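Case study.
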Amino acid sequence: MSVEVAGLGHAKAEGPLKLAVPRGALLEETLDALDAIGVDTSEVRGESRSLIFETEGITLVTMRPSDVPTYVEAGAADVGITGKDVLLEQADRVVYELLDLGFGRCRMVLAARKGDESLGESQRRLGMMRIATKYPRTAERHFESTGRQVEVIEVKGSVELAPLIGLADGIVDLVATGRTLEENDLEVREEILECTARFVANRVAHKLRAREVDELTAKLREATAR
Amino acid sequence: MIHPIPPGTRDVLPDEMRELRRLHLAMIEVFESRGYGEVATPAIEYDEVMARGDGRTAASAYRFFDERGDLLALRSDMTVPIARLVASRYAAVEPPIRLCYLANAFRAVRPQRGQMREFAQAGVELIGAPAPEGTAEVIEVLEATLDAAGLNRTVIGLGDSDLFRQLLSELGIEGEARDSVLGRLAAHDLVGLEAELSELNGIGEEQVATCVALSQLRGGKEVLDEARSLGGAAVERATARIGETFEALEARGVADRVQIDLGLLRDLGYYSGAILEVYDPAIGHVLGGGGRYDGLLKRFGLDLPAAGFALYLERVHVAQMEEARGVEGL
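After joint prediction, the assembly is written out as follows.
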C-alpha cells in the first residue's frame, strides 16, 4: 500500500511558492512578519528596483496592494498579503482568505467637514448624499445595507479634497491615525469597519501545494499572534 | 468596420478551432468508448425548468420572454437540462443511463481568460447508479478524459457536500445562519468563518476550531482519520462515504490522482454526497467539477440517484497550452 499516493504525489511543485507582497503602507510590517518566520527580506528592504526577489524557499513578488487579489486569483502568485479593504472592494475576485495577520490596522469611515450639515441636508432635501471615495463598492454596500441612497463619486487621488471644494458632501476612506482628516478639517461621522492585513491563497495552489501553504499559514499565524 | 460582440463572448478562428476540435473529438471518443451516448438539448429552456433544478444558484442569468409571453432562460449548465431530458424521455428505460454532452452554457461572470459568459462544457451524466460505484465510475471516466487531453498532472479533489450541512445542523445552526456559514465555507473565507461562528449562540471555541480545521483537511487517505478524530456523527458519516468511494477507486486502480478534501464545497445547490473538482498545476483556475446529485432527478419526477462531471473546454485548452509551454521551458 502506498501512502503518499493521493493528492500531492502528482502535484509536482514548480519551484518555490510565489508570495505577493504589498508595497506601500503594509510593506514594513509584512517584511517584519516575514523576517519573523525566517524569510530573508534584506534585498526587498534595500535600494533595489527589482520587483521579484528569490529567497531561500519562497519567491517574493512586490506589487500594489490592490493588485494582489488579481495576481493571486489568476494563480500568477500562489499566495499573497493585502488589506481587508482591498479584498472587500474586490469581493468578486476568488481568493481564499486564510488568516488575519492583525497588523496594518485601520478603519473605513464616513467623514465630513467639521460642523458641516451638508450630509444631513442633502439627505433630507435631495434624498441622497454625494460621497467621494476610492472604495466605491464598499461605500455602496455600506449605504445600501443601512438603507440610504447615495451618489458615489469615484476619485483616484486625495479624497479629502472632495468635500472641501464641494464635489461631495462626505467621503468614505481608510484612516489609520486620523491625522490627514484632522489636517483637512474633516471629522469621522461613522465607522464602517475595521481592516487588517490578510493572508490569501489561490484556490488551486491551496489544493495542490497544500503542505507548503499550510506550513506558511501556521508559521505566519504563530509570528503574528499576540 | 469593427462590429462589437457582447463582453464575455468571442469568435473562434481556424487555428484555435482546429485545436478545440481535436480536443472535442478526443473527449467524445473517451465518453463513447465507455458507453456514454452523446445528447444535445436546446440552449434555451423554460425558466421554470432551470429553476426547478436549483432555484437558488443554477437559475440562468439570462432570461427573456418569447412571443407568447413565456419566460425562457439560457441554460447555465447541462446537468439540469439532462435531468429534464431523462425524466421526460428515459422514464421507462432500465437504468443505469449513460449520457454525455459537449455544449455551450451561459453564466454571468467577470470575463477573463478561461472564464466567459458563454462557455463550452464537456461532461457525462451517469443516472441510476448509486454511490460508491457510480461515483467511482464517473471519476474513472474523468481521469480517462484528462489523459486523452494530455493533462497527466491534474489532481481531482474529492469531498462531501453534505458534511458541513449536517455538521452545522448537528451544532444547532439552521436556516439563514447556516446558509451564511456555508457561504463563508464555499468562498473559503476562514477569517469571516471564524468570526461568524464565534458570534452564534451556543457555539464554543472548540466547535469553531473543529469547523475551521475540517475545512483545511486535504490530502491522502490519512485525512479521513484526522477528520474522525475531530468527532461528531456528521463527520463520521461523511468520512465513511468518502472512504467507500476512495476504496472503490482503489479497486479500479484509479485512486492515485484523487486528493481527499473535506473543505470542498461547490456552490451549485443540487449536489448531495460526493463532490469533485479538477485542478492542473499549470493554471490557477479550476478545470471543472462534478459530483453526486441524488435528489435532482426526483425534482423532475424520476427518483434515481445520479452523478456526473463537466470540464470547461476552454480552460482545458488553456491548460494544454500552459503544460506544453512548461515542458518547452525546462
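Observations recorded in class. The longest helix of chain B spans residues 14-33. The longest strand of chain B covers residues 97-106. We will return to this complex in the next lecture.
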